[in-house]
C-alpha cells in the first residue's frame, strides 16, 4: 500500500535556471509540500495543485529577490507515474536601491544624534545587496532591538515598506521607528521567594531608582541569579504599561510585486505588518518624555537539600566511598553549606564548607573546616585545618573562548607527621596561596585543540618557630588535533620551594610525583626525597609528557605516551625517571577515560593506571 501511495506522488524535476542554492532549496521545499497533497486526488484537484505548485515557485523566488521570473510547469508521465517538470528563467535579481530610515519620539533629540547615526550605519541590508526576504526581516528586527534594548523599551516599528521596481530590479526600503519615551527603572518587586531571603536578590540587582533602562544590565542580573545554587530559574524584566505583552500597530508591510504576499510571513516581533490588532494603550509619561517602570524579578527556588553517595575505584587507593550533603539557606542566611567525607585506603577526610553567594564582580568566597588523614609512601599526616578561599572565573573579551580562573586562599593548619622509621612531630602553619589559570580549549571536558597555563605560588610561616617558606609552580598543557579524530598532547610542570634547610614545611607544599596524570609506570607520589623509610616532599619538581591518541571512532581509541621527571633536593640533583606505555581511551560525557599500562624504567616495574582526562 505504501508503495502505491508513493507512486501516485508526482516526481518533481526542477531546472533552476542559474538561481543560487538558497533559492533552489526554498523552491524545492514549497513544491514538495504541495506534491504530497497530490496523492489519491482526482483529475480536477490535480490540475489545481499544479497551479498551486507554480504559484509557490513564484513566491519562493520572490523571497530570494526574483520578482520578474518566468516559470513553466509541464506535467508528464514515466514508469513511476506523473512528473512535474518545472523550468525557471529567473530574470534579474532585485537589489536594494535605497534605504530610508526614519525615527520619531524622544530619540530625535540632539543628545541622541550620535546614536541615531550609528543605527543608520549599522543597518544590515545596505544599498547594492540582494533583496532577500529573510535578510529584510532580520535587518528590521535588529534595528528595532538596537533601539529598544537601551533607554527605549517601548520602541515599536510604526511603518515599513519594500517598494519593488520590477523593471529596474531595485527595491526602495523605508522603515519608521517610534522610540517612544525614555524608560527609567522604578521600584523593585520580587516574586517566587519562599525560603531564600530578599537580600540575596538585592545583592545582585543593584541600581538607583530612576536609572536609565538598559536590557544588558537586566540580562546580567538574570544570569548572575541563575548561576547561584539557590535558583533553578530567574527572570528579570520591566513591567510594561498595560500589564503584559503589547500588540503592534496595524501598518501594511508587503513588497509591491508578484509573489511578495509571503514577504511578511516571518516578519520580526514589533513589525507592524504582522498584526491586525489595535495598538497598545499609550504609556503614561511626564512632560519631558520619560516613563518609569517597575523592575520585576521572578525566581524559581532550587531544592533546599541534597544528599549524594558515590562509590568508586582508584588504581592506587583501591575502593573509595564518598558522601556529600548540601543545603541552601542556613539559619535563614543566603549561604550554601556542604559537608561530607571520603574514605579510601590511602586517605580519609571529613569537611564542612560554607559558600557565600557570588559578589557583583563574580568573586566566590568560602570558608571551611577540614580533618584529613593520609598515609602515602611511608609519610603519615593527620591534619586539622581552617581555611578561606576566594575564586573568580571570567571570560575573555568579546566572543573569545578563553577562560580565566583566579584563586586566593588562606589556611591555618595543624599537622601531625609520622615518617616511617624516622621522626614524628607536629607542625602548626599559616599559609597564603594564589593561582592564576588561563584555559583556551575547544572543549573543556574533552579537548582536542588549545592550551592551558597555570601559575601558582604561596608563602607561609611555621607558627611554633616563625620560619618562613615560599613556593612557585608552573603548569602547561597543549593539544594539537591530528587528522579527523587523533590528538597530540604535550604537558609540563616545574616547581620550586624556598626554605631554610632545617625548616619543616607542610606536606602539600613540598613536591612528590608519580602515578596517573604525572609520571606513569610508578606508584602514586613515590618519586620525591627519600627520608628513612618514607618518600617526603622535595624542594624541586620537573615533569614532562608527550602523548599521541588515535581514535577508531567518536568513542573508542588508544594512546601511546612517554612521561619523564623527578622531584629532588635541587634541579642539579635530578635523575629523570622515565615511564612509557600504551593505553585505551574511551570518551564519556564526563570526559575521556584513560586506562594505561606503563613501564617505569627506574623501578623496572609494569603498572596499570586509569584516570579521567579532564583539562585541569
Which band does the percent of strand residues land in? over 45%
Return the CATH architecture of the largest domain.
Beta Barrel
Q: Considering DSSP H and I runs of 4 or more, what fraction of the residues is helical?
A: 10-25%
Name the CATH superfamily assignment of the largest domain. Answer: membrane protein fhac: a member of the omp85/tpsb transporter family
The total tally of domains equals 4
From the helix content, strand content and strand pairing, which structural class follows? mainly beta
Residue-averaged pLDDT, rounded?
A: 85
The quaternary organization reads as single chain
Please report the number of helical segments: 7
Q: Which term fits the overall shape?
A: extended
Report on the biggest sheet.
16 strands, antiparallel
* CATH C-level of the largest domain: Mainly Beta
Remind me, CATH topology of the largest domain? Porin
Number of strands: 27
Strand order of the largest sheet: 10-11-12-13-14-15-16-17-18-19-20-23-24-25-26-27
Low-pLDDT residue intervals, each spanning 5 or more residues? 1-7, 244-270, 272-283
Gap between N and C termini: 59 Å
If you compute it from the alpha carbons, what radius of gyration comes out, rounded to the nearest whole angstrom?
34 Å
Amino acid at each position: 500500500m505504501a508503495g502505491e501511495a508513493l507512486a501516485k506522488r508526482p516526481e518533481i524535476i526542477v531546472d533552476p535556471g542559474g538561481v543560487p542554492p538558497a533559492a533552489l532549496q526554498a523552491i524545492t521545499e514549497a513544491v514538495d509540500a504541495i506534491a504530497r497533497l497530490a496523492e489519491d486526488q482526482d483529475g480536477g484537484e490535480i490540475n489545481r495543485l499544479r497551479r498551486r505548485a507554480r504559484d509557490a515557485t513564484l513566491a519562493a523566488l520572490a523571497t530570494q529577490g526574483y520578482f520578474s521570473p518566468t516559470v513553466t510547469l509541464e506535467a508528464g508521465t514515466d514508469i513511476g507515474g506523473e512528473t512535474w517538470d518545472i523550468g525557471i528563467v529567473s530574470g534579474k535579481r532585485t537589489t536594494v536601491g535605497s534605504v530610508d530610515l526614519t525615527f520619531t519620539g524622544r530619540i530625535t533629540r540632539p543628545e541622541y544624534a550620535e546614536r541615531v547615526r550609528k543605527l543608520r550605519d549599522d543597518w544590515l541590508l545596505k544599498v547594492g545587496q540582494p533583496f532577500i526576504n529573510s535578510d529584510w526581516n532580520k535587518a528590521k528586527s535588529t534595528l528595532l532591538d538596537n533601539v529598544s534594548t537601551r533607554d527605549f523599551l517601548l520602541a515599536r516599528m510604526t511603518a515599513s515598506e519594500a517598494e519593488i521596481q520590477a523593471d529596474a530590479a531595485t527595491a526602495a526600503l523605508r522603515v519608521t521607528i517610534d522610540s517612544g519615551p525614555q524608560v527609567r527603572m522604578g521600584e523593585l518587586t520580587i516574586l517566587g521567594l519562599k525560603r531564600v531571603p530578599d537580600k540575596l536578590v538585592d545583592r545582585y540587582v543593584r541600581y538607583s531608582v530612576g536609572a536609565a533602562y538598559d536590557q544588558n544590565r537586566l540580562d546580567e542580573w538574570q544570569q548572575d541569579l541563575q548561576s547561584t545554587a539557590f535558583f533553578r530559574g530567574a527572570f528579570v524584566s520591566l513591567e510594561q504599561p498595560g500589564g503584559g505583552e503589547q500588540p503592534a500597530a496595524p501598518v501594511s508591510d508587503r513588497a509591491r510585486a508578484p509573489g511578495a504576499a509571503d514577504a511578511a510571513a516571518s516578519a520580526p516581533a514589533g513589525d507592524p505588518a504582522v498584526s491586525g490588532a489595535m495598538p497598545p494603550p499609550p504609556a503614561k509619561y511626564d512632560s519631558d518624555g520619560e516613563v518609569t517602570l517597575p523592575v520585576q524579578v521572578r525566581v524559581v527556588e532550587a531544592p533546599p537539600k541534597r544528599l549524594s553517595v558515590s562509590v568508586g575505584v582508584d588504581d592506587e587507593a583501591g575502593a573509595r566511598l564518598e558522601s556529600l550533603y548540601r543545603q541552601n539557606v542556613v539559619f535563614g542566611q543566603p549561604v550554601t553549606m556542604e559537608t561530607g567525607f571520603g574514605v579510601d585506603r590511602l586517605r580519609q577526610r571529613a569537611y564542612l564548607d560554607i559558600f557565600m553567594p557570588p559578589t557583583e564582580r563574580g568573586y566566590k568566597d568560602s570558608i571551611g573546616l577540614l580533618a584529613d588523614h593520609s598515609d602515602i609512601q611511608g609519610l603519615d599526616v593527620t591534619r586539622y585545618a581552617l581555611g578561606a578561599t576566594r575564586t573568580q572565573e571570567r571570560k575573555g573579551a568579546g566572543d573569545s573562548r578563553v577562560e580565566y580562573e583566579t584563586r586566593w586562599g588562606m589556611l591555618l593548619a595543624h599537622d601531625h607527621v609520622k615518617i616511617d622509621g624516622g621522626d614524628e612531630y607536629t607542625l602548626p602553619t599559616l599559609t597564603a596561596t594564589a593561582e592564576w589559570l588561563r584555559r583556551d580549549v575547544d572543549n573543556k571536558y574533552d579537548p582536542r585543540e588549545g592550551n592551558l597555563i597555570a601559575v601558582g605560588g604561596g608563602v607561609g610561616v611555621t607558627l611554633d618557630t616563625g620560619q618562613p617558606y615560599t613556593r612557585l609552580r608552573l603548569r602547561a598543557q597543549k593539544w594539537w588535533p591530528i587528522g579527523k579524530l587523533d590528538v597530540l598532547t604535550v604537558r609540563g610542570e616545574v616547581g620550586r620551594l624556598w626554605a631554610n634547610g632545617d625548616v619543616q614545611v607542610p606536606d602539600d607544599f613540598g613536591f612528590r610525583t608519580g602515578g596517573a596524570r604525572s609520571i606513569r609506570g610508578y606508584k602514586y607520589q613515590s618519586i620525591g626525597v627519600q627520608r628513612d623509610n618514607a618518600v617526603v616532599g622535595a624542594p624541586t619538581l620537573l615533569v614532562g609528557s608527550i602523548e599521541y591518541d588515535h581514535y577508531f571512532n567518536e568513542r573508542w581509541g588508544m594512546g601511546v605516551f612517554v612521561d619523564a621527571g623527578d622531584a629532588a633536593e635541587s634541579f642539579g640533583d635530578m635523575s629523570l625517571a622515565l615511564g612509557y606505555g600504551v593505553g585505551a581511551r574511551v570518551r564519556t560525557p564526563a570526559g575521556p577515560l584513560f586506562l594505561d599500562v606503563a613501564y617505569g624504567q627506574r623501578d623496572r616495574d609494569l603498572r596499570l593506571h586509569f584516570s579521567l582526562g579532564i583539562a585541569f
